[in-house]
Amino acid sequence: MKNLFTLLFAFAILTSQAQKLVSYSDGAQKLEGIVSTPTKKEANGNAVLLLPAWMGIDNNAKENAAELAKLGYLTFVADIYGVDKRPNNPGEAGKIAGYYKTNIAEYHKRIQLALDELVKQGANPDKIAVIGYCFGGTGAIEAARTNMKIRGVVSFHGGLGRDATRTIEPITTKVLVLHGADDFYVPETEVKAFQDEMRTAKADWQMIYYANSVHAFTHKDAGNDNSKGAAYNEKAAKRSWQAMNDFFNEIFK
């Protein structure tokens, strides 16, 4: 019954917010993302690529894509894993997300393919931003590190780490990091290394901390027990969404 409810809920979102499934591929691997199209009245000519958290395309990603479409942004939710590679539980998600973090070039490739698909769906290639949640937040930062053709990136409670052997290249993309002040999944050493990296890369970056917030603070299904390391925080979720909007107003002006 729970699975049926989840499917019906997902279908309701897809049909009510002008969302549709889009098939694309990485060689023989079939991928399936979701495009959310604003009405002509809402459309502002700007576009957003949304990179989901480690469980893949979830309700959080679909709902946020629908909200972005309401704000006028053509939005594409990327499929990083593939239609037959979706994790069924956190254990599987950790393994597959870990693969892409270790084999970072593969993650870069899947992000670029999603960007290409967003352009195919009608996005102006000069007016695109990338946002991501948790694992997807790491991907958003990677899009900046590799200077993909985008205006800016927003990482919601994303991992900030990088292989220390990688050369730090100049970053031309604007970066916004929205971070839980009590997120122990991202240790202070990782935060400091990231900030030093941004300085070395001479990036235009911002980092906002949210009080009493841990990992996954935007995910409504994460519960409210901070001691578990991942929990929803309504105030932080609303404030971070507003910070993203202010950032978009700046980069798309």
Describe the structure.
With 253 residues, the protein is of the alpha/beta class. It contains 7 helices and 8 strands. The protein has helices at residues 2-16, 59-70, 90-102, 104-120, 135-145, 188-200, 234-251; strands spanning 19-26, 29-36, 47-51, 74-77, 128-133, 152-156, 174-180, 205-210. It has an 8-stranded mixed sheet, sandwiched between helices. Strand 1 and strand 2 (29-36) form a beta hairpin. Helix 3 crosses helix 4 (104-120). The termini are far apart.
Write the layout of secondary structure elements.
Elements lengths: L1 H15 L2 E8 L2 E8 L10 E5 L7 H12 L3 E4 L12 H13 L1 H17 L7 E6 L1 H11 L6 E5 L17 E7 L7 H13 L4 E6 L23 H18 L2
Parallel strand pairs: 3-4, 3-5, 5-6, 6-7, 7-8
Antiparallel strand pairs: 1-2, 2-4
Helix pairs in contact: 3-4
Short overview:
The protein has 253 residues and is an alpha/beta fold. It contains 7 helices and 8 strands, in the order H-E-E-E-H-E-H-H-E-H-E-E-H-E-H. The protein is 39% helix and 19% strand.
The share of residues in extended strands comes to 15-25%
What gyration radius follows from the Cα positions, in whole Å?
17 Å
Distance between the termini: 47 Å
Low-confidence stretches: 1-16
The biggest beta sheet reads: 8 strands, mixed
Helix content: 25-40%
Specify the overall morphology: globular
Mean pLDDT: 93
- Strand count: 8
Number of helices: 7
Helix-strand topology string: HEEEHEHHEHEEHEH
Strand order across the largest sheet: 1-2-4-3-5-6-7-8
**Structural class, please?**
alpha/beta
What oligomeric state is this?
single chain
